[in-house]
Write a structure and sequence with these properties.
With about 230 residues, this protein is α/β, with parallel strands linked by helices. It is built from 8 helices and 7 strands.
Length: about 230
């Protein structure tokens, strides 16, 4: 793991972590929506890449108490807060590890055959080599697994002054939206045969992506089945 990347994240979130969940809910739009669309069975697992304080995982674990959840983050300080919250809320089915989105493996979480679901919530816009992060996530999914992404879109349907101020403000926090992300995902759809659903929130403020890796189409699943993540 890159010590420089971890150090940068720790420096950025050293104090922000205490108000992170409260402050981000006002402009990280689409997170609650994508969480409602993710359906797991008791046999499935989910990894959140860039899990921060673990708030998304807590919500999913509450609704799917028999499933297994994992959190990955570059910041040791954010994971310190996440683990403290886990102890407080007594969740026994969430496990955290420090690492980078471009480098993690399912094996480091003792998940032998890959993840059923991977969630990236406003993570890719903070990663310069985000293409590698997406590619690695798909590689760590098991056949038929689903990658869920919510992040900033291009805001072209919103007033120009708003978009300018938003991008300038985000840049202060080293957040740089990737307008080419949907094109990249569509390319993966053509190259790999993945099944992709992409749509935008009002004003094209954010985009929501569900990308299902090719798998065993005839395999039987508990209800709800994995393809349900695409029926949105």
């Amino acid at each position: 793991m890159s010590a420089d990347a971890a150090s940068r994240m720790d420096q950025q979130y050293r104090y922000q972590r205490y108000v992170y969940d409260w402050s981000r809910k006002y402009y990280l739009l689409g997170r609650e929506q994508i969480l409602r669309e993710i359906k797991l069975t008791s046999r499935q697992n989910l990894l959140e890449v860039g899990c921060g304080t673990g708030s998304n995982l807590y919500k999913l674990a509450y609704h799917f108490p028999l499933s297994k959840f994992y959190g990955l983050d570059a910041s040791a300080l954010m994971l310190e807060s996440a683990r403290a919250n886990t102890r407080y809320k007594r969740f026994q089915n969430i496990h955290f590890q420090q690492g980078l989105a471009q480098q993690f493996t399912a094996q480091q979480f003792n998940v032998a055959n890959g993840f059923d679901h991977i969630l990236m919530s406003y993570t890719l816009s903070m990663i310069p080599d985000w293409e590698l992060a997406v590619g690695n996530a798909l590689q760590q999914l098991k056949p038929g697994g689903c990658l869920h992404i919510v992040d900033f879109s291009d805001q072209v349907a919103m007033p120009g002054w708003f978009r300018h101020l938003l991008l300038k403000w985000l840049d202060w926090f080293h957040v740089r939206p990737n307008p080419e992300l949907p094109v990249f995902i569509r390319g993966l759809e053509q190259q790999t045969g993945a099944t992709v659903n992409i749509r935008h929130t009002p004003g094209r403020y954010a985009l929501i992506i569900h990308c299902r890796k090719p798998g065993l189409d005839n395999e039987k699943h508990e209800e709800p089945q994995l393809p349900s993540c695409l029926k949105v």
